[in-house]
Amino acid sequence: MSSSTTATRSPVRAAYDELVTRGTLTSDPAQIDAVRELDRVLADLLAHKPKRLFGFFEKAPVGVRGLYLYGDVGRGKTMLMDLFFAACPFREKRRVHFHEFMDEVHAGIATFRKSVRGKDEDADPVEAVVKPILKGGLRLLCLDEFHVHDIANAMLLDRLFSKLFAGGVTLVATSNVVPDGLYKDGLNRQLFLPFIALLKEKTVVAGLPSEQDYRRLKFAGQQVYAFGSGPAVREAMDQMWLRITGGEPGAPGVVESIGRQIPVPLTAMGAARFGFSDLCERPLGTRDFVRIAHQFDSIVLDDVPQMDRTKSDASKRFILLIDSLYDRGVKLAASFAVPLEELGADDKTAFEFQRTLSRLTEMQSEDYLGKGLRDAAPAEAAQ
C-alpha cells in the first residue's frame, strides 16, 4: 500500500509514522494500538457526516462511538489526541482541557440562572447551556485529562453528556484513570454511577499501557536553567527546546482565554516557548496563566531579567506565572540574566518573590521534574 493511500485511510497513523520517521517519536506498540482506535473514530465520523439544509440538520444527528483513552502520566495520551484533532478535516470540533470545559459550563449555568428565563421553575439550566453548543453544529469534543474530583461536576455530568450525546456529539477523552475510577470514594458516588455507564456505552475504553514515561525522559539529567546572556545562553535554550519537542522546531499558536487569544511564539509536542516580555510585560492575569499551564506540559521561558522597582508590574506577573506553573506541575526551562538569588524585586513584592525563588529552585530538581502534572482545576485556581 502506498504512503498516500495509508494517509487517506489512516490519517492519524500517517501523522504518527511521520513523527517516528523524523526521529521526534520512538515507535511504541501501545501508542500504535491507540492510534488505530483514533483512526477508527475519525473514519466513523467521516462516514456519518450529518447533512444540513439552510443551516439546520435534515434529521437528528447521530454521534459515533468515541474513545476514552487512559494511562499513566507521560505516556503520550495528549500528544495522540492532538494528532487526531489535527487530522479531523471538519471545523465542527473542539479540543479543551476537561476542567476548563466544566468551568465554562458552570459559568453558563450561573449566567442563565440570573436571567429572566432562568427564574422560571420549569427552566432547565443544563439545556440552556447545551442548546447553543448543539446549534453551533459541534460534532467532536476532545477533552484532555478527564478527572472528576468534586461533587459539583459529579452531579452534573450525566445530565450534561446525555444531552450532548443525544445531540450527536462524539467524545474523545484522555484520563489517568479508568471510568470506574472516576470520582472514587466521592460523596454520594452512587448518583454518579449512571454517568460511568453512559460513558462506557458512548465510548470505547482503551488503555495506553506503555512502559516508558516519555515526559520524564525529556528532562532526565538536564540542566533546565541557564544564566547570563549572549549566544551561548540562547544556544542552550535552543537545544533544550529541541530536546523537549523531539527535534520539532515548532510553530506559532494561541491560547484561548476568556474570549480572547494569547499569542504563543512557538508550540510543539505539548510544549510552548515564550519570551519573558510575551507573558510578563503584557496585560495578563492569573486566569490567563492557569490556561497556559493547562494547555502545555512544558514551558521554555527566555530572557528573564533582573527585577527592580521599574519592573514592578512585570514582577507581579512573573510571580503569578510561576505560581500557576508550579501548582500544575508544568516543567520549566528558562534563561535568567542573573543567578536566582540576584533576581531581586521591589519592596511591594519582596515577600511573594521569596516564595517564587523557592519554587524556582524546586522546579529544577530531579524530584519535581520526575513527577507528573497535578490536577488543579482552573476554576479553583483563578477565583
- Per CATH, the architecture of the largest domain is 3-Layer(aba) Sandwich
Please give the CATH class of the largest domain. Answer: Alpha Beta
Task: Give the integer mean of the pLDDT values.
Answer: 88
One letter per element, helices H and strands E, the order comes to HHHEEEHEHHEHEHEHEHEEEHHEHEHHH
What fraction of residues sit in β-strands? 15-25%
Q: Number of domains in the coordinates?
A: 2
Quickly give the structural class: alpha/beta
CATH superfamily of the largest domain: P-loop containing nucleotide triphosphate hydrolases
Give the low-pLDDT segments.
1-5, 377-383
Tally of helical runs:
16
Radius of gyration: 22 Å
Describe the overall structure:
The structure is a single chain. With 383 residues, this protein is an alpha/beta fold. It folds into two domains: 3-207, Rossmann fold; 214-381, Rossmann fold (3-Layer(aba) Sandwich), CATH 3.40.50. It is 46% helix and 17% strand. The chain has 16 helices and 13 strands. The chain has helices at 3-9, 11-21, 29-47, 77-87, 98-114, 125-135, 151-166, 193-202, 214-219, 231-245, 276-280, 286-295, 312-328, 350-363, 366-369, 378-381; strands spanning 52-53, 56-57, 66-70, 93-97, 140-144, 170-175, 203-207, 225-227, 251-257, 260-268, 271-275, 298-304, 331-336. The strands form three sheets. Strands 8-13-12-11-10-9 form a six-stranded mixed beta sheet, with helices on both faces. Strand 9 (251-257) and strand 10 (260-268) form a beta hairpin. Helix 2 packs antiparallel against helix 3 (29-47) and helix 6 (125-135) packs across helix 7 (151-166). It is globular. Residues 1-5 and 377-383 have low confidence and may be disordered.
